Amino acid sequence: MTEYELVDTFYTIATLSDQLVASFITLLFAFLVASYLVSSKLDRKMTAVVIALYSYMALRYIVIYHNVTGDIVTLADTLTKLGLREDSSLGWLEIGAGISTMHIAQSVAMFLSFVASLIFFFHTKQRSNE
């Protein structure tokens, strides 16, 4: 791949990771609203179905995000090394050193928000049944 194609791929994958986070947040807030409105009305079987479907989709987004951003980190390292070469035209490209830290932090934040949403669901369900 040319340097231009690598940079273009980097920004394309970064856009994909942003879309994954946005979709995850949409799913998370839809679940929180549904939890607040209907969790007390669900019997055990429906609770299991709702939790299973939500968990599958949420964990799917988290795993895909983690994999995609892992690719971004690898590509960022490649671009940084290419930019250091004398014959490179990537001298203008600066990718922050904290990209790998953000990759892990965002993945952990997404997982913790998933766990927190499940706690909220059961807390709301229990509180409404009292």
3D architecture notes:
The chain is an all-alpha fold and about 130 residues long. It is about 85% helix and about 0% strand. The chain is rod-shaped, with a radius of gyration of 20 Å. The protein has helices spanning about 5-40, 45-85, 100-130.
Which key features would you list for this structure?
130 residues, rod-shaped, mainly alpha
Which parts are unreliable, with pLDDT below 50 for 5 consecutive residues or more?
Answer: none
Main sheet attributes: strand count, strand direction, barrel closure = none
Series of secondary-structure elements, N-terminal to C-terminal: HHH
* Strand runs, count: 0
Instruction: Classify the helix fraction into a percent range.
Output: over 70%
Q: Which whole number gives the mean pLDDT?
A: 91
Separate helix tally? 3
- Radius of gyration using CA atoms only: 20 Å
How many angstroms separate the termini? 62 Å
Derived from helix and strand composition plus strand pairing, the structural class reads mainly alpha
Overall form: rod-shaped
Q: What fraction strand?
A: under 5%
How would you summarize what this structure contains?
The protein is mostly helical and 130 residues long. It is 83% helix and 0% strand. It has three helices and no strands.
Topology:
Blueprint: H1 3-38, H2 44-84, H3 99-129
Helix pairs in contact: 1-2, 1-3, 2-3
